[in-house]
């Protein structure tokens, strides 16, 4: 599943204005943690960090939407 999400994000990056670098790296990190959690479901520390990283992604996305660097209807997981 994370690979599909990554492919969708790359497709959106080609169609949409370029995704800012800091947002891109946070998305990559979240995908890596999700992939890790598929094999290690009981890893509570990773779940905690995934929540924090996704929170940062949402805050940055909100900032970039208001500044016009992302489409207003951009979503992390379309």
From TrEMBL:
<dbReference type="InterPro" id="IPR009068">
    <property type="entry name" value="uS15_NS1_RNA-bd_sf"/>
</dbReference>
<dbReference type="GO" id="GO:0006412">
    <property type="term" value="P:translation"/>
</dbReference>
<dbReference type="GO" id="GO:0022627">
    <property type="term" value="C:cytosolic small ribosomal subunit"/>
</dbReference>
<comment type="similarity">
    <text>Belongs to the universal ribosomal protein uS15 family.</text>
</comment>
<dbReference type="GO" id="GO:0003735">
    <property type="term" value="F:structural constituent of ribosome"/>
</dbReference>
<dbReference type="GO" id="GO:0070181">
    <property type="term" value="F:small ribosomal subunit rRNA binding"/>
</dbReference>
<protein>
    <submittedName>
        <fullName>8309_t:CDS:1</fullName>
    </submittedName>
</protein>
<dbReference type="GO" id="GO:0005730">
    <property type="term" value="C:nucleolus"/>
</dbReference>
<dbReference type="InterPro" id="IPR023029">
    <property type="entry name" value="Ribosomal_uS15_arc_euk"/>
</dbReference>
<dbReference type="Pfam" id="PF00312">
    <property type="entry name" value="Ribosomal_S15"/>
</dbReference>
<keyword id="KW-0687">Ribonucleoprotein</keyword>
<keyword id="KW-0689">Ribosomal protein</keyword>
<dbReference type="InterPro" id="IPR000589">
    <property type="entry name" value="Ribosomal_uS15"/>
</dbReference>
């Amino acid at each position: 599943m994370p690979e599909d999400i990554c492919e969708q994000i790359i497709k959106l990056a080609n169609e949409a204005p370029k995704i800012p670098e800091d947002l891109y790296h946070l998305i990559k990190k979240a995908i890596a943690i999700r992939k890790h959690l598929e094999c290690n479901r009981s890893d509570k520390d990773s779940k905690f960090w995934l929540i924090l990283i996704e929170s940062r992604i949402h805050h940055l996305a909100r900032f970039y939407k208001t500044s016009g660097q992302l489409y207003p209807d951009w979503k992390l997981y379309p």
